[in-house]
């Protein structure tokens, strides 16, 4: 008998062992578009719908933190018209979703260098961050103009300034002190990192924060990603044994 093409039912998940923080490298928009004979920007447009679906799916699963890698410090190397389109889509997304974020208890947080983005986008992002800062149901952390090395370097620079000014004693700098200088200050480290699009690399994402994160790679192109794929990743996560360098208990 021919195998059914019907989608698998969502796997059963253990509600007591959900990841608190899921981070996603949303990759494969360009290849999704190329496969359809469309310009890359159409892939980014379709990717925006996947962001909406994923945000909703995370809310339904009661995940507390969702970090999305939207634009890296290295993505400036792309053709100017693609960069412009990506930033325009981001601006449109945040403007269009602001009311929904506010209504649905979602707090927008940005990780990345806002000061070197076009002023109109930076202003809109700051406005929506301020509007949603009291929300507690889900934190949407958007990694935008973000690079892991750039993040570490700005942290080291500010920490060195504080040490030179006598505000921090070098001997007292520990993990927690350092983490306060990162863009992710106040957010727990990701429990699960998903990369779509088939590549198995980190591409300068959250270098400090993923020390003990479980990694999950999917061949699905980001515009095709939906609640079923998220559930499959969470199911895989629930099958892992996290040891943090120690030994299994129980
Ligand atoms: C991810 O898709 C979107 C961003 C990096 C902003 P890509 O544009 O990298 O798509 P591929 O990897 O070329 O298919
Ligand atoms: C990672 O994807 C960056 C984002 C998803 C924003 P890239 O497509 O830029 O990564 P590489 O170039 O394949 O490593
Ligand atoms: Mg890519």
Task: Give an account of the 3D structure.
This protein has 250 residues and is an alpha/beta fold. The protein has one domain: Decaprenyl diphosphate synthase-like (Undecaprenyl pyrophosphate synthetase, 3-Layer(aba) Sandwich). A six-stranded parallel sheet has the order 3-4-2-1-5-6, with helices on both faces. Helix 1 packs across helix 2 and helix 3 packs parallel to helix 4. The N terminus is likely disordered. Bound molecules: 3-methylbut-3-enyl trihydrogen diphosphate (2 copies) and magnesium ion. One 3-methylbut-3-enyl trihydrogen diphosphate (IPE) binds next to helix 1.
Q: What does the oligomeric state look like here? A: single chain
User: Any idea what the radius of gyration is?
Assistant: 19 Å
Low-confidence stretches: 1-7
- Proportion of residues in extended strands: 5-15%
Q: Choose one word for the global shape.
A: globular
Rounded mean pLDDT score: 95
Fraction of residues in helix? 25-40%
Tell me the total number of β-strands: 6
């Amino acid at each position: 008998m021919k195998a059914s093409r019907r989608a698998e039912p969502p796997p059963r998940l253990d509600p007591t062992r959900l990841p608190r923080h899921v981070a996603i490298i949303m990759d494969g928009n360009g290849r999704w578009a190329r496969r359809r004979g469309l310009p890359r920007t159409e892939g980014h447009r379709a990717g925006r719908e996947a962001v909406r679906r994923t945000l909703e799916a995370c809310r339904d699963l009661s995940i507390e933190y969702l970090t999305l890698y939207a634009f890296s410090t290295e993505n400036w190397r792309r053709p100017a018209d693609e960069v412009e389109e990506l930033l325009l889509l981001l601006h449109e997304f945040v403007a269009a979703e602001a009311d929904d974020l506010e209504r649905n208890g979602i707090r927008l947080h940005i990780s990345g260098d806002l000061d070197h983005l076009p002023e109109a986008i930076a202003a809109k992002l700051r406005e929506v961050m301020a509007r949603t800062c009291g929300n507690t149901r889900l934190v949407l952390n958007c990694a935008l103009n973000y690079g892991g090395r750039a993040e570490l370097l700005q942290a080291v620079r500010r920490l060195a300034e504080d040490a030179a000014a006598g505000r921090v004693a070098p001997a007292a700098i520990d993990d927690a002190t350092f983490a306060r200088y990162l863009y992710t200050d106040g957010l727990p480290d990701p429990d699960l990192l998903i990369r779509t699009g088939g590549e198995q690399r980190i591409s300068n994402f959250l270098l400090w924060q993923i020390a003990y994160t479980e990694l999950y790679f999917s061949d699905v192109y980001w515009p095709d990603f939906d609640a079923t794929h998220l559930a499959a990743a969470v199911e895989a996560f629930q099958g892992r044994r996290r040891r943090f360098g120690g030994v299994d208990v129980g």
